[in-house]
Amino acid sequence: MSESDKAENKFDEFKGKAKEGVGKATGNEQWQAEGKAEQTKSKLKQAGEKVKDALTPDDRPGRD
């Protein structure tokens, strides 16, 4: 995973936390849910990139 991808995913996670926090503070359940969803999406991207990084080029699917 490139450093810019890592930074983007972390920023997206931060945005989700902020959105969830604003939603909690204002009682806006939709923003709370959207914030949690953004955090989950970011964490899934990060996990997928970690798996991809862990595979050697010869182990990656589709590489013969």
From TrEMBL:
Residues 1-64 are annotated as: Disordered. InterPro entries: CsbD (IPR008462), YjbJ_sf (IPR036629). Residues 1-22, 35-64 have a biased composition (Basic and acidic residues). Gene3D superfamilies: YjbJ (1.10.1470.10). Pfam families: CsbD. Residues 5-55 form the CsbD-like domain. It comes from the Bacteria. Belongs to the UPF0337 (CsbD) family. This is CsbD family protein. It comes from Nocardiopsis eucommiae.
